[in-house]
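ping. complex inputs:
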Amino acid sequence: MSPDDILEIASGACLVLGAAFVVIGALGLLRFPDLFARVHAASLIDTLGIGFLALGMGLHAGWSQVSLKLGFIVALVGLTSPVATHALAQAALHAGERPVLRSDRRDEGPLP
Amino acid sequence: MTGVTSESIVLFVNTALLLLMCAAALGVVRLRNLFAVVMLGGVYSFLMASLMVALDAVDVGMTETAVGAGISVVLMLSVLGLTKTREAAPRHRPLVALVVSAVVAVSLLYASGDLPPFGDPAAPAHQHVAPEYLARAPVETGAPNIVTAVLASYRGYDTLGETAVILTGGIGVLVLLLGARRRRGGVRQGGAGESPEGTGAPMLRDTVILRVGAKILLPFILLFALYVQFHGDFGPGGGFQAGVAAATGVVLYALVFGVASAQRVAPVRVVLVMVPLGVLIYAGTGLAGMLAGGNYLDYSVLAHDPVHGQHWGIFAVESGVFVTVSGTMLAIFYAFAGRRQAREEEGAGR
Amino acid sequence: MFAAALVAVLTGFALALTRALLGPTVFDRALAVNSCGTLAVATLALVGFVTERPDFLDIAILYVLLNVVGTIAVLRFVRFGQLGDPVEGERGGRGADEPG
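pong. complex structure:
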């Protein structure tokens, strides 16, 4: 197994991981019962999803300008995404949205 | 993963993107809440950009990205501020329109069956001028990005027209928005006017995270806009994309810190001057060519040898495009931002 | 591997788009659109790798930078009802009362 093979396998594994987190995050975005839980699920996509995908692509590309730009993308997504979701959650709180709590659901039977 | 070729992946990606675009478009048509419509318009836009990149049209994809991501959403929301946010229910069912659209769509689909395959080198569109440009452009202009070479040099006159179109569009919007207020006495500076920054400040300032985040992002956006501007010769980029990105940076500043603060950085007068200045630069470059002894917009005579002349010419016209595009976007944003406020002040004063 | 990643990212996109179409409040939609933006960046990067064009990453970087502006514009609009500076004393929001 040459180092290139190992790199390819590692790259593939990272891509699969990233893809998995993207799907998990998007499923959570769709299925969670309330806004704040969905914010939490969506953050998976922005951090782990993009992170692993970029790592996989970077391993495939080796040391080059492409990897540098991928690093920029990860850093910028890591900077902009929390800012945006923070602003979103705060605006939602200001507008009166409240998280669905366990106590709200007690009357409705067991949690789904 | 045997048998999965690059072409089949691209085909799958194109199909999936088109289906998603259909879903987004259906959402735009069916939803009554105009917020959602504006946001879905943004989604449609970046699906389109991804499709363009998948089809190898990276310059157009970059322009679509730059325009659809930030500035379109902002300007459409500004319009929503002047109207209602809920679409009125239609009073009649547009069956005739539906039938006509369906007939046209089917005819187009049928006709498209006769088109040559995508990317076929023997297609008529790729004969005649195209191979000549492909052969001459790197040699004559020294710009590896043929799209920029064609846009800025070989078809520079067309691009001058496009820039003039942006200018006239901007003038039209500004006349509509500012014209009425001018009659009532002077162009109002947006925001709190003379009062200091502390009073009447936009409430988004109380989020520290947003302020700090915006302050960190801004230099990146502006720097990247400059990078896109100058890198346009070598990769996707150029004046349009860079102008929109720069304007969006200033709009971000205005959104987080208030239009008044933004107008301290990019004053209204300067922005209004930028709008025609870019076209002037562009047309002036053409005139410079004539004064140097060549034809209008002939760059070869601008420097000591033709290739350098092309470089300078392309640089100058792209800068002109940048100035006009960024000026127009910002001017329209300022006009919308100031107008709503002026309307309320007039309403309160009555 | 890129094909699998692309399938997953596009699936995620479809799910996020569904949330954008459904989302009862405007905040759900804004969140979904923000995630769609991030997924679009992933799509751009992966497509670029598959078609072997290294230029695409400039577009992806541009997209990341501009995506946040759209989200912040929507939030500011929902909170203040307009994008200019609020006049003294105005604090009302417009879109928050709107259903969806």
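The mean pLDDT of chain A is 86.
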